[in-house]
Amino acid sequence: MQVYERRLENIEELLAELVLLAEENAVLIVEGKRDIQALNRLGVKGHFEIATQRSLSNFCESIARLNEKVIILTDWDRRGNLLMLKMTKHFQSFGITPNTLLRERLMSIVQKEIKDVESLHTFVVKLRQATGHSTSEDGFVNEIR
């Protein structure tokens, strides 16, 4: 039970960081619409961009012109890892170092239980149920008594 509590706590902290960065106009890069929906359901709202809709070079260049805060949240499967590496190189060529640390932390928290961002909401709900926490409609965590 303590393992689940710790994992939930770590994910909640990470989500809170994402919310703050999104409020500071960071661009959150994901692979698809379902990733955006999952993050929205977890309370993360902001400027999302989908990396798989046009050429990577043009995609990164257009974001680099607009913003210096870039967070890459691709899946942690083979395709997502390659995409993250390629985008990191492109952004660095435009003088931007994207934040990939949040993605790495997320990967270490969920370990091998899920492999993509779109499964994150379901995973968090299961963790909350396993630890005796629930989520109210406004997204806040309430302890079940």
UniProtKB/TrEMBL annotation:
InterPro entries: TOPRIM_dom, UPF0292. Transmembrane segments: none annotated. It holds the Pfam family Toprim. Residues 1-31 form a coiled coil. The keyword Transit peptide does not apply. It comes from the Archaea. Residues 25-106 form the Toprim domain. SUPFAM superfamilies: Toprim domain (SSF110455). Keywords: Coiled coil. Belongs to the UPF0292 family. This is UPF0292 protein PV02_05480. It comes from Methanolobus chelungpuianus.
